[in-house]
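=== RUN LOG ===
request id: a7f3
mode: sequence -> structure
chains: 1
length: 209
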Amino acid sequence: MAQPGGSRPVTVSDVQQLVKRKDEIEAEIKACYELLEGQKGVGMNEPLVDAEGFPRDDIDLYQVRTARHNIICLQNDHKALMKQVEEALHQLHAREKEKHARDEAEALAEAMSQNQSLPQAFAKVNAVTPGSPASISGLQVDDEIVEFGSVNVNNFQNLQNIATVVQHSEGRPLSVTVIRSGKKVHVGLTPKRWAGKGLLGCNIIPLQR
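=== RESULT ===
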Protein backbone atom coordinates (compact mmCIF):
# COMPACT_ATOMS: atom_id res chain seq x y z
CA MET A 1 0.00 0.00 0.00
CA ALA A 2 1.33 3.40 -0.98
CA GLN A 3 1.81 5.71 1.95
CA PRO A 4 1.43 9.50 1.66
CA GLY A 5 4.64 10.83 0.14
CA GLY A 6 5.31 7.48 -1.57
CA SER A 7 5.90 6.99 -5.26
CA ARG A 8 2.41 5.67 -6.08
CA PRO A 9 -0.62 7.98 -5.73
CA VAL A 10 -2.86 7.21 -2.77
CA THR A 11 -6.12 5.44 -3.70
CA VAL A 12 -9.48 5.17 -1.94
CA SER A 13 -8.57 1.54 -1.22
CA ASP A 14 -5.40 2.71 0.56
CA VAL A 15 -7.43 5.03 2.78
CA GLN A 16 -9.91 2.23 3.55
CA GLN A 17 -7.01 -0.02 4.61
CA LEU A 18 -5.61 2.74 6.84
CA VAL A 19 -9.01 3.24 8.47
CA LYS A 20 -9.36 -0.53 8.93
CA ARG A 21 -5.96 -0.63 10.67
CA LYS A 22 -7.00 2.36 12.83
CA ASP A 23 -10.12 0.44 13.93
CA GLU A 24 -7.99 -2.61 14.73
CA ILE A 25 -5.60 -0.54 16.88
CA GLU A 26 -8.53 1.05 18.72
CA ALA A 27 -9.93 -2.43 19.42
CA GLU A 28 -6.52 -3.57 20.74
CA ILE A 29 -6.26 -0.49 23.03
CA LYS A 30 -9.78 -1.20 24.34
CA ALA A 31 -8.84 -4.83 25.04
CA CYS A 32 -5.73 -3.72 26.98
CA TYR A 33 -7.78 -1.30 29.09
CA GLU A 34 -10.31 -4.07 29.78
CA LEU A 35 -7.44 -6.31 30.92
CA LEU A 36 -6.25 -3.60 33.34
CA GLU A 37 -9.83 -3.19 34.59
CA GLY A 38 -9.90 -6.95 35.26
CA GLN A 39 -6.78 -6.59 37.43
CA LYS A 40 -8.52 -4.94 40.39
CA GLY A 41 -9.25 -1.88 38.23
CA VAL A 42 -5.61 -0.74 37.96
CA GLY A 43 -5.26 1.84 35.26
CA MET A 44 -2.18 3.34 33.66
CA ASN A 45 -0.88 5.15 36.75
CA GLU A 46 -1.86 3.17 39.89
CA PRO A 47 1.16 1.88 41.88
CA LEU A 48 2.14 -1.75 41.47
CA VAL A 49 3.61 -1.97 44.99
CA ASP A 50 1.83 -2.07 48.32
CA ALA A 51 2.08 0.41 51.18
CA GLU A 52 5.29 -1.24 52.36
CA GLY A 53 6.92 -1.06 48.93
CA PHE A 54 6.54 -4.74 48.07
CA PRO A 55 5.16 -5.89 44.68
CA ARG A 56 1.42 -6.33 44.91
CA ASP A 57 0.36 -9.97 45.11
CA ASP A 58 -3.33 -9.36 44.33
CA ILE A 59 -2.71 -8.69 40.64
CA ASP A 60 -0.75 -10.25 37.77
CA LEU A 61 2.13 -7.78 37.56
CA TYR A 62 3.43 -9.19 34.27
CA GLN A 63 0.03 -8.82 32.59
CA VAL A 64 -0.43 -5.28 33.92
CA ARG A 65 3.03 -4.12 32.83
CA THR A 66 2.59 -5.72 29.39
CA ALA A 67 -0.85 -4.14 28.93
CA ARG A 68 0.44 -0.71 29.99
CA HIS A 69 3.40 -0.99 27.61
CA ASN A 70 1.15 -2.13 24.76
CA ILE A 71 -1.28 0.76 25.35
CA ILE A 72 1.55 3.32 25.09
CA CYS A 73 2.90 1.72 21.89
CA LEU A 74 -0.58 1.37 20.36
CA GLN A 75 -1.49 4.98 21.18
CA ASN A 76 1.68 6.13 19.40
CA ASP A 77 0.80 3.92 16.42
CA HIS A 78 -2.74 5.32 16.46
CA LYS A 79 -1.49 8.91 16.44
CA ALA A 80 0.87 8.21 13.52
CA LEU A 81 -1.88 6.38 11.63
CA MET A 82 -4.35 9.24 12.10
CA LYS A 83 -1.77 11.56 10.55
CA GLN A 84 -1.41 9.16 7.60
CA VAL A 85 -5.21 9.04 7.14
CA GLU A 86 -5.39 12.85 7.22
CA GLU A 87 -2.57 13.19 4.65
CA ALA A 88 -4.08 10.50 2.43
CA LEU A 89 -7.51 12.17 2.48
CA HIS A 90 -5.87 15.51 1.68
CA GLN A 91 -4.07 13.92 -1.30
CA LEU A 92 -7.27 12.29 -2.54
CA HIS A 93 -9.20 15.56 -2.23
CA ALA A 94 -6.48 17.54 -4.03
CA ARG A 95 -6.31 14.96 -6.83
CA GLU A 96 -10.12 14.91 -7.16
CA LYS A 97 -10.11 18.72 -7.38
CA GLU A 98 -7.37 18.60 -10.02
CA LYS A 99 -9.27 15.92 -11.98
CA HIS A 100 -12.48 17.99 -11.82
CA ALA A 101 -10.64 21.05 -13.16
CA ARG A 102 -9.05 18.93 -15.92
CA ASP A 103 -12.44 17.41 -16.86
CA GLU A 104 -13.99 20.89 -17.03
CA ALA A 105 -11.15 22.13 -19.25
CA GLU A 106 -11.53 19.10 -21.55
CA ALA A 107 -15.31 19.57 -21.74
CA LEU A 108 -14.84 23.24 -22.59
CA ALA A 109 -12.25 22.40 -25.26
CA GLU A 110 -14.60 19.79 -26.73
CA ALA A 111 -17.52 22.22 -26.74
CA MET A 112 -15.38 24.87 -28.45
CA SER A 113 -14.21 22.32 -31.00
CA GLN A 114 -17.83 21.29 -31.69
CA ASN A 115 -18.88 24.91 -32.02
CA GLN A 116 -16.10 25.51 -34.52
CA SER A 117 -17.19 22.52 -36.61
CA LEU A 118 -20.93 23.31 -36.45
CA PRO A 119 -22.44 25.02 -39.50
CA GLN A 120 -23.62 28.61 -39.09
CA ALA A 121 -27.29 29.19 -38.28
CA PHE A 122 -29.27 32.03 -39.85
CA ALA A 123 -32.56 31.90 -37.95
CA LYS A 124 -34.02 30.73 -34.65
CA VAL A 125 -37.30 29.18 -33.52
CA ASN A 126 -38.75 31.26 -30.67
CA ALA A 127 -42.23 29.71 -30.42
CA VAL A 128 -43.85 26.36 -31.27
CA THR A 129 -47.62 25.78 -30.91
CA PRO A 130 -48.56 22.36 -29.44
CA GLY A 131 -50.27 20.09 -31.98
CA SER A 132 -48.93 22.06 -34.96
CA PRO A 133 -46.97 20.54 -37.89
CA ALA A 134 -43.79 22.08 -36.39
CA SER A 135 -44.49 20.54 -32.99
CA ILE A 136 -45.30 17.11 -34.50
CA SER A 137 -42.04 17.18 -36.49
CA GLY A 138 -40.05 17.67 -33.27
CA LEU A 139 -39.03 21.28 -33.83
CA GLN A 140 -38.31 22.99 -30.48
CA VAL A 141 -38.06 26.52 -29.11
CA ASP A 142 -34.46 27.83 -29.29
CA ASP A 143 -33.55 25.52 -32.20
CA GLU A 144 -31.16 27.45 -34.44
CA ILE A 145 -31.87 26.82 -38.12
CA VAL A 146 -28.91 25.85 -40.32
CA GLU A 147 -30.89 24.61 -43.35
CA PHE A 148 -34.56 25.00 -44.15
CA GLY A 149 -35.20 23.10 -47.38
CA SER A 150 -33.07 24.92 -49.96
CA VAL A 151 -32.43 27.92 -47.69
CA ASN A 152 -29.09 28.13 -45.87
CA VAL A 153 -26.77 30.79 -44.44
CA ASN A 154 -25.30 31.50 -47.88
CA ASN A 155 -28.57 32.38 -49.62
CA PHE A 156 -30.76 33.55 -46.75
CA GLN A 157 -31.76 37.21 -47.04
CA ASN A 158 -34.94 37.50 -44.98
CA LEU A 159 -37.84 35.45 -43.59
CA GLN A 160 -39.63 35.71 -46.94
CA ASN A 161 -37.14 33.11 -48.23
CA ILE A 162 -38.48 30.59 -45.68
CA ALA A 163 -42.11 31.58 -46.38
CA THR A 164 -41.62 30.92 -50.11
CA VAL A 165 -40.14 27.46 -49.46
CA VAL A 166 -43.04 26.64 -47.07
CA GLN A 167 -45.70 27.69 -49.61
CA HIS A 168 -44.10 25.62 -52.39
CA SER A 169 -43.73 22.58 -50.11
CA GLU A 170 -47.28 22.27 -48.73
CA GLY A 171 -47.97 18.59 -48.05
CA ARG A 172 -44.40 17.57 -48.87
CA PRO A 173 -41.70 16.83 -46.28
CA LEU A 174 -38.98 19.44 -45.93
CA SER A 175 -35.49 18.64 -44.67
CA VAL A 176 -34.69 21.02 -41.81
CA THR A 177 -31.35 21.03 -39.97
CA VAL A 178 -31.03 22.79 -36.63
CA ILE A 179 -28.45 23.23 -33.89
CA ARG A 180 -29.87 22.12 -30.54
CA SER A 181 -27.83 22.16 -27.32
CA GLY A 182 -24.60 22.39 -29.32
CA LYS A 183 -25.45 19.45 -31.60
CA LYS A 184 -26.71 19.21 -35.18
CA VAL A 185 -30.22 17.71 -35.41
CA HIS A 186 -32.18 16.80 -38.56
CA VAL A 187 -35.96 17.28 -38.58
CA GLY A 188 -38.52 16.20 -41.20
CA LEU A 189 -41.09 19.00 -41.40
CA THR A 190 -44.22 18.80 -43.58
CA PRO A 191 -46.00 22.18 -44.03
CA LYS A 192 -49.79 21.62 -44.06
CA ARG A 193 -53.14 23.05 -43.08
CA TRP A 194 -54.03 22.51 -39.44
CA ALA A 195 -56.39 23.98 -36.85
CA GLY A 196 -54.15 27.00 -36.27
CA LYS A 197 -52.68 29.78 -38.35
CA GLY A 198 -50.29 29.19 -41.24
CA LEU A 199 -48.75 25.92 -42.41
CA LEU A 200 -46.14 25.41 -39.67
CA GLY A 201 -47.41 26.61 -36.28
CA CYS A 202 -44.10 28.05 -35.17
CA ASN A 203 -42.45 31.46 -35.11
CA ILE A 204 -39.03 31.96 -36.67
CA ILE A 205 -36.81 35.00 -36.22
CA PRO A 206 -33.60 35.90 -38.09
CA LEU A 207 -30.36 35.64 -36.10
CA GLN A 208 -28.30 38.79 -35.74
CA ARG A 209 -24.68 37.91 -36.48
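=== NOTES ===
Confidence is low (pLDDT under 50) at residues 1-5.
Residues 96 and 178 are 37 Å apart (CA to CA).
=== END ===
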